[in-house]
Amino acid sequence: MKSINLLKYTSKIGAGMLLLTTVGCTNLDEQLFDRITSDNFLQTREDVTRDFLRAFEHSYWSIQGGSTFMLQENSSDEIMTPNRQGDWFDGGQFQRVHYHTWTPNDGFTADPWNALYGGVTLATNSLEDLQGIKDPSKFEMTQAELDGMISELRTLRAWLNIRLLDFYRNIVIVTKVKGETTGGSQVTPQEAFAYIESELKESLPKLPTVQSLGANAVGRWTQGGAVSLLVRLYLNSKVYTGTDRFADCAKLCQEMIDGKYGTYSLESRWDAPFDYNNATSKETVFGFPGSFGLTHWQYDGGMYFWMLPNLAPSYFGFTDFGNANPKYAMQPGLDVDGKEYPHALGKPFVKFQKYPDDVRLKKYKNLGNSKREGMFLHGYLTYTNSAGKPDTVRGFKGPYALYFRDQVGKFLDAKPGTPIADKVSNMNNADNNSGIFPVKYPFYPSDDLNKIASAYAEIRFAEIYYSLAECKYRAGDKAGAAVLLNAVRKRNYPTGSPSLYKADGTQLTDQEMIDEWGREFLVEGRRRTDMIRWGVFNKGTWWDKTADADNHTEIFPIGQTVLNSSPQLKQNPGY
Prior knowledge:
By secondary structure, the chain is mainly alpha-helical.
């Protein structure tokens, strides 16, 4: 069996789609213009491979494209995009996300629908092509290889559909696109759940394992990846369908840990799952391959590069992308006078500081030879400027050195600890000193051969441990939950640290579980989903955010532009 290297094909996929467009546009036979089949489009094994992989490229983009990352994080108690002296006000859209006051007329309510259905459409189009192949030997392929590709595309489409279900609940199931001129009707969340579940279960036996793919496993859906999607589905089943499936979730998690669907293991360093060589990490259950010269969506503007203050690239020594633009920062835990806020939710940096020997609390610093320490940018950031002189990161709103703090306000050039007269701390009153910036994926210097080389780890083996821990906790087995959480957490603390949970699990409460999900999966695009599952997304209070009037904001409205183009769709309740 020939193995497919997804990264190798990244730059070729666009050419495949150009070929698709060219065939459609230049053939004057109306029937063929309407419908491209495997008989006229797919001529070689390379054609089949490009067709198979086209939806993967778009899906990689969708982790941050279509406002998906922004909505998952900014609507939660974790990340903010405040008005920084006129920057990032953007018509108040980020404030509406923060306050849960969005409407169908906000463009970002249509963006995820369009982005994710773009992937569903591409995957379905390719599925129809591949399912139309009657003789795979014509393409130097076995039936097993073809079946594996079909199963991977069904799994990829299931991942996209899970996210649509999570965002909107009342979605359309797309199983055919060729020759279709109208969109379908919505199904109930229960029907969508059942369809996604069946797609994954039916695909599972014909998927490869991570071991069978070897070095080319990154970017490919395996049995472990499909089971992990079922874990996500079952973990959130009560939210999606009203039916508790925690027992099913726990069973699959344990089978994953036991190696039934491939051999995975946890890394011994907290940063290893995100490092330049994480494509081959045994903790990466599913990831999209990244490369400085090709594709690196998580490092682009919609995600981690906009999670940096203006001149942070100078601090890193990474100048290939120019200066940063601080769109995202962590919500504050302290008011402008340094007093901790009383609410239980939010305060993400304070939640890390609860365990002060956490090695992630160190200031991010590149150590040379593709190594770094720390996960946060805080305090002053000093570096050597282009003139060879010591300098400090500054903003674009004044010449003063910036001091990044776990607070939001108009600090301007005030030294740390100096009281300021303006006591207002809200989404509309921030400056460039406001907030701590997380750096989860490394920004190695421009002369480092491994700069911007990390794969995006969409599913980490740690998620299986945390999902099983939650199931055990909910079932009353706090000791079992503590063991699982500590299996991951121990890499965040020195050997013998008192920060590990006690063996009996007595430290675990609902709030501690919510907090620990937030610590381990900070800025991994899932916080909103986790908060909804724990029942605090609408009822909770955090910085500059009071409880919602009701629960209708657990799902987003279908954007008005989508409804205008698809009149058969019905708006979600409450909008």
